[in-house]
Amino acid sequence: MPWPPVTAKTVGMIANQAIPLALYIHIPWCLRKCPYCDFNSHQAEGDAIPEQQYLTALIKDLEQLLPRVWGRRVSTIFFGGGTPSLLSPTAVSNLLSAIRARMPCVPALEVTLEANPGSLEIEKFQHFRDAGITRLSVGVQSFTDDSLQRLGRIHDAEQAHKAIQSVKVCQFESYNIDLMFGLPGQSISDAQNDLEIALSYQPPHLSLYQLTIEANTPFMYSKPDNLPDLDTLADMQDVLAVRAAEAGLERYEVSAYAAEAMQCRHNVNYWEFGDYLGIGAGAHSKITDQAGVARFSRPRLPKQYIETAGTIDAFVGERNLTEDDLVLEYMINALRLRKGFTLKQFSLHTGLSKEVLSSGIAEAINKGLLFQNNDSVIATEKGFGFLSDIQLMFS
Questions:
Q1: N or C: lower Cβ tally within 10 Å for the chain?
Q2: Is residue 308 domain-resident?
Q3: Would you say residue 118 lies in a domain?
Q4: 10-14 long-range CB contacts below 8 Å, 24 or more apart?
Q5: pTM, to two decimals
């Protein structure tokens, strides 16, 4: 039976029911900015942040956005940064209460908070659990002191171990360990050793990221030497992926591995092209309504964000996505998932006919990068390693 035509209007009409809505909260401060980081983060002045002012601004920000999502339930909440664990547990609890008072939430709400292994943050872990955080993501990056120093991290290996041990004691519903590979001077055996230590804690979720040298970061200008070459990086990732699978962690996304039913629902919503509200300095939003799919963001500088929260000046760069935007952005996100996507999902989330993908899919299939099984489109093993090549076929 053919599907009925899907338009921006019909997408907007069914968005309340069919397209999940996530909430992202950006905390823009760090005790010290890492030299490889290109996120919107700023060093806290005197190791202190204007917590109450920021909390007030976040609530104003949320209230301003509520008319755009009336009736829609929040499916996940994610505190990202920066270093969200710099917040006090009281601030987290108050903010979550304010959110629940203003927006309906799904019963089994996933609430993630990113945390660093520094001793001050570790002391707060149980209080974060009591405040309503269900999932902690710990930015370990490495269990080797030398690698941590090269990365500019402020914690050491001992603190990394203590952080994971503390997370397990606190009995969060889930947690994630962030690891990096491809570090300066790192061999394949070094990366394997980091992974083995992480796996010894039997984490339900693991993020394995390759270090990349981003534009406008200190690493770009200092150009750290002794980085692994491309062949070594490819071998490193293959070895790590195989070992993670042997430990029962499925690679469900390019950089994400999880035990059964323990995927990060918030991130999956991004990759499935779901909607999200972003509040906080520099936060981005994507909202589907009768007018189509819109993107907008908030001022990047914390001081400006606090001063403009709740005013017209808080909106930065709002625009509706064109058909070309929708196709490219959908494919960039959806193909990161190992399961791929369905053509029905594509039409639901974009309002476009599946026919707009036909030539790109055919080209990718011909090159052995994609395969199609009825309605499902999935990257082949070769294609999963060359996602940027596939994406060019839809640009």
A1: N
A2: no
A3: yes
A4: 10/351, 11/288, 11/292, 11/293, 11/348, 11/349, 11/350, 11/351, 12/288, 12/289, 12/290, 12/291, 12/292, 13/290, 14/348
A5: 0.93
